[in-house]
Known about the structure:
The protein is mainly beta. The chain contains two helices and nine strands. It is globular, with a radius of gyration of 21 Å.
Amino acid sequence: xxxxxxxxxxxxxxxxxxxxxxxxxxxxxxxxxxxxxxxxxxxxxxxxxxxxxxxxxxxxxxxxxxxxxxxxxxxxxxxxxxxxxxxxxxxxxxxxxxxxxxxxxxxxxxxxxxxxxxxxxxxxxxxxxxxxxxxxxxxxxxxxxxxxxxxxxxxxxxxxxxxxxxxxxxxxxxxxxxxxxxxxxxxxx
Length: 189
């Protein structure tokens, strides 16, 4: 009888910190009337408090990964959407992430003699995808318009720039937990 081999259990979560040297960037801005006003029947997560006018900035930053070693040399293209409309996830508060019981009441737990909230954190602010068969990756994330404006200001200064990305792999998906555009190499920090 053949011996049964035990499968190695994959970790539930895997964190990776990436350092990407920025080599090129593209940007576009758009002003338009909120499309939900024309087709409200197709508006998902529509909110009456959403702005009537939509202002969007799209920033694409591309470069080569320098850290960690197993991904060094891979190319990355990160698309950052700055938008004043969209689902409330950009404007979410800690209250929105608090776990609820079956009656909708916020859950708490006891810690060192006081009640602290129990949170259900989102997996990330965007996704990272591997391009099959190539040493290339794409990522996208949604941010407030202010973030894209600040990033554009850094891109104009002429200095070498780096992207620092904190990646969370949960199951088969890779999430962007945080992203930083900076003048110092995150691999050296």
